[in-house]
Amino acid sequence: MIASAISVVLYLFGAEWRPLIYAGFLVQSGYLIHRGFELGRIPLVGVHDTLNFLAASMVAFAIAIQAARKQKKDFYMMLALLCAVFTGFALFQTPYATPLPPVLKTYWFELHVAMSFLSYALFWIAALLGIIYLRYGEAEVERLQYKSIFVGYSLFSLSMILGVVWAYLAWGTYWLWTPKELWTSLLWLYYGLYLHARLWNRWSGRPCAVLGTVGFGVVLFTYLGVGLLMKSSHSF
Amino acid sequence: MAKDKNNTIVDRAWDFMASIKLAIILFALISLTSIVGTILEQNAAPSKNIQVLGSLFGESLAPTLYVAFEKLGFMDMYRSWWFLMLLMLIAANLLICSLDRLPRTWRLVKDPMKPLSKEHMAAIPLKREFTIKGKPGAAKDAVMKAVKKTGVKVMESSEGGDIQLYGERRRLSRLGVYVTHLSVIVMLVGSVIGIFFGFKGNVNIPEGATYTVAFARTGMLTPAQDNEQNMIIRAVENARGDVAVAANSLGVEEDHLRARMRRLGVIPLEFGLRLDNFDVDFYGMSDMAKEYSSVLTVVDGGREIIKKRIEVNDPLKYKGITFYQSSYGLMPPGDYRYILRATSRNGATETMTVRKGETFTIPGTSVEASVAEFNASLAFDPSGRPFTYAQFMNNPAVRLEIKTGQESYLKWIMKRNSNTWRLTSGDVIELRDVIGAQYTGLQVRRDPGVWMVYLGCALMSLGLYIAFFMNHRKVWVMLSPAKGGTDITVAASANKNREALERKIDRMVSLLREGEK
């Protein structure tokens, strides 16, 4: 709890001074690792865990992107605010501390969720890069956006495949038409469309960057909207 | 794509089916209907969705809207004809756009790379020109070495005094996108095979019982159908799962019997499945299940074939049918057997199985006991009265009547609480298990298409990897004799990640120039 609160403050001030983002990241990662050891499993069950994980993953990917090319201050400002909001929101969610139901006690589950949240983080980073591109129009930034999305898309596909295998082992069916699966496939189609649109002359450039940015909302709805509003195979 | 101008209807329809425009339209349609299908709970009681509609559009409109949405199939959207049609259209879109573009790609992949004419080379955007000393023939080896560094396999051709070195790498990677598209089709075909040739059923087997059928979901059965179902099940059980024998005993054709079974939702397993034991493991002293497992035995042709302990995420498979641990529950009171272990204060121990009322003796003593009462989830209210607190076997306990000489008293023994096992005499009676009190809930599935779905998954991983992380790269280097040396023109192209190729080419050029100094 205290660790999360510290991260929020660090991220908030990180909007002004970048090193504080990294400090927030270190505190948050430390918290997640500590929680993982305490629970003896991957800390990715419930909104509290996943929001923390998402914020930390986004910073981690941002560091990788910074290594590829120096980014504008605006990028870090948005990143810091986003991480602060996520971590802040996580602060008000009760951590899932009860033991896991039997169906979640498998590596398939751990890999499945880890992959999907890493891909969400990449899609969000891509959305931020999209905003930067739309504002400053640097082709290099658009290419980074594309790369983030295609790595994210690969991880997301992998996560779906892991989910398919797991569901088949657990329930004897690899696909259940519940809202979560549906929005997952929509998200997959959406970014599939983005990847195709980019090859299409009429859409490459700005329209495509807009598509990659709007994806933020589709991811957010798939992640939180479906979970909070609807009953699904993903509520345990 | 360059097509004939005289577009027929068929051409136009083909182009539309292959277009990204259709993909976008379908995506939008699926999203919009999905939002409705997500807000309305699928396969729920009508009152629930009327309430949802009421909160969105007002109480007065809700019933009318419900009927309208129901007619349109929104209450069971994923099985509605139009939703399946949208999915099929997406698949058709994918297939046709692949077929539309494949021939062109195939030509690129099939034909070996050719040297370029000077004019063609001039038209390539990524180009570097410079001059080095020495005749083309002499410079060739150094150039060859430098070109190899870009990762391509180098070939050579000469025309007039010019020498051209050229090569390519990962030509086949152009097919990656088709592998990805194909994978989606393969998965869809696999799922359709599963729908048409497989089944989904379930069965609840009490401890100790052998079942030869499972049950598919059907609508409500009439009393007559219910009777017929029971009769068929009995016949199949008596025939130990052999449907032909059962048909014979009922005096009907086997095909007829199978058709009736399908109609009544009875799935023949063609073998017997026995539940030997069912157990729930709890987290510490809580009522939260940590793991639950069934020990199952497959009995086929009168012989025990397999014995396996299955648990959640670890099913049993036999003859193409898979049994998944999915739920459990308590049987109505009946012929339970209690496994008790008695240990006397001088250490003699014995495990025995008893029924209610059967008297047994603690080994090496004269203490006699018998089970007087059973409670599956025993708890005591504040006044000390026992009651059952859950509908599962969360805290099984037996009330023993214990006789020591003249005295006799009643005592509760709980399976999960070792503090209750010790008698006042110092002897210990432990409740090990209760047989026959629980049933296991199994999902029963046959899915002959699943291997295709898995194949599709593998193809998709492969295809995405090739499509995103590999590129087809071509390099041409022209060496032309010039005054005082050789004019070198480097041209290169790649279907993806051109920046990386440009960096490689620049490195190659600087390498050649370095060699000059």
Structure characterization notes:
The complex is a heterodimer of chains A (236) and B (517). Chain A has 236 residues and is mainly α. Chain A has helices at residues 2-14, 19-39, 47-68, 73-91, 107-136, 139-171, 179-197, 206-229. Chain A is built from eight helices and no strands. The model of chain A has no long low-confidence stretch (mean pLDDT 84). Chain B is of the alpha+beta class and 517 residues long. Chain B has four domains: 2-104, no CATH class; 112-170 and 471-514, TATA-Binding Protein; 186-332 and 440-455, no CATH class; 337-436, no CATH class. In chain B, a hairpin with a 6-residue loop joins strand 6 (266-282) and strand 7. In chain B, helix 3 (46-57) packs across helix 4, helix 5 packs antiparallel against helix 8 (176-197) and helix 10 (243-250) crosses helix 11 (254-263). Chain B starts with 8 loop residues before the first helix and ends with a helix. The model of chain B has no long low-confidence stretch (mean pLDDT 86). The interface between A and B is large, with 44 and 46 residues.
Brief synopsis:
The complex is a heterodimer of chains A (236) and B (517). By secondary structure, chain A is an all-alpha fold.
Distance between the termini of chain A: 23 Å
Strand order of the largest sheet of chain B: 1-22-21-3-2
Quaternary state, please? heterodimer
Name the helicity range of chain A. Answer: over 70%
What about the largest sheet of chain A?
none
The computed structural class of chain A is mainly alpha
Would you list the SSEs of chain A in sequence order as H and E? HHHHHHHH
User: How many discrete structural domains of chain A?
Assistant: 2
Task: Kindly provide the radius of gyration of chain A, computed on alpha-carbon positions and rounded to a whole number of angstroms.
Answer: 18 Å
Strand content of chain B: 25-35%
Uncertain stretches of 5 or more adjacent residues of chain A: none
Structural category of chain B is alpha+beta
**What is the total number of structural domains of chain B?**
4
Number of beta-strand segments of chain B: 22
DSSP strand tally of chain A: 0
Helical content of chain B (DSSP H or I, runs of 4+)? 25-40%
With helices defined by DSSP (H or I, 4 residues minimum), what is the helix count of chain B?
13
Q: What is the gyration radius of chain B calculated from CA atoms?
A: 38 Å
Q: Provide a count of the helices of chain A.
A: 8
Biggest sheet details of chain B:
5 strands, antiparallel
